[in-house]
Amino acid sequence: MRLCRFDDDRLGLVDGETVRDVTAALDGLPAHDDGALFGALDSLRPRIEAAGRGAEPRPLAGVRLQPPVRPGKIVAAPVNYISHLNEVHDDPELHHGQLINEIHKAGLFLKAPSSLIGPSDSVRQRFLDRRTDHEVELAVVIGKTADRVAESGALDHVAGYCIGLDITLRGPEERSFRKSIDTYTVLGPWLVTADAFGAPTDVGLRLDVSGEPRQDANTRDLILSVARLIAFASSFYTLNPGDVILTGTPDGVGPIRPGDVINASIDRIGSMSIPVVAA
Question: Whole-model pTM?
Answer without folding.
Answer: 0.94
